[in-house]
């Protein structure tokens, strides 16, 4: 993996990481102490929730899919589907307040944290504060971000083949890699453009914002969800969303920012159809032929990106179980 992108305003510490892990899994963060970050970001699903649209407290349905939290330490281009937060800890502020997510007032969360028998000493150890009154929203989300920075996924079959030379691809996996995924020097609009243009190793996601041809709209103002355009203010960015990592993609169905595709087969069919020709579609969204053998090979390769150890790594698991 590349070097992590560290935040000088939030240096990592063992105490901060452990505090963040507890806050991440503690329902004390949600309304009536009934909802946690981990309810939408589950370890066995590569920190997604298995739903098309995230479901918050009381069964309230959100407007987008819960993104995977793996390898956020390598993202330099803004967080959330639309890049609405430039820092990881800033992103963690909003789910607590969002009525469709945790629906709680931060002041009520802080009251519970300050009155806790455990948290004041953990905040003191992590951030050097002297009084419980110094426990703040900013320190809480910085601790959560420290924990999230440690959720690294880099122990897949792909890694063991390519970087460690301890395993081998099957013939089918190799076909998917060489003929379909890592395709170079293909003129735009001809043949298969190669998934690796947007999802190249080792991160398998460039975290840039693109229109990947999902919606057929008459003009750029007609996107139901304007995505990155809401943040940039540019009409040409409407309908663009962050390119996520494909690491652990077999664990994170359904797919896309709105979970519209239930299976990877549907995702491949979408890209083979070539989008809708909307003026801001990424140039790599072109139609191509994909027969059953090629589809099976590409799916086999995508499965090599699953990190089996991630779901069982105790460093990322709930401290309350």
Structural class: mainly alpha
**Count of distinct strands:** 2
Q: Can you tell me the overall shape?
A: globular
Give the domain tally: 2
Element pattern in H and E: HHHHHHHHEHEHH
- The CATH topology of the largest domain corresponds to Cytochrome Bc1 Complex, Chain D, domain 2
Strand-residue proportion:
under 5%
Low-confidence stretches: none
Residues in helices, as a percent range: 25-40%
Instruction: Give the count of helical stretches.
Output: 11
Which class of the largest domain in CATH terms? Mainly Alpha
Rg computed from alpha carbons, rounded to a whole number of angstroms: 21 Å
Span of the ends, CA to CA = 31 Å
* Strand arrangement across the biggest beta sheet: 1-2
Please outline the major beta sheet: 2 strands, antiparallel
At CATH level 2, the architecture of the largest domain is Orthogonal Bundle
Overview of the structural elements:
There is one protein chain. By secondary structure, the protein is mainly alpha-helical. It has 2 domains: 139 residues, Orthogonal Bundle (Cytochrome Bc1 Complex, Chain D, domain 2); 147 residues, Cytochrome Bc1 Complex, Chain D, domain 2 (Orthogonal Bundle). The chain has 11 helices and 2 strands, in the order H-H-H-H-H-H-H-H-E-H-E-H-H. The protein has a two-stranded antiparallel sheet. The longest helix is centred in the middle third of the chain and has 13 residues. The two termini are 31 Å apart. The mean pLDDT is 95.
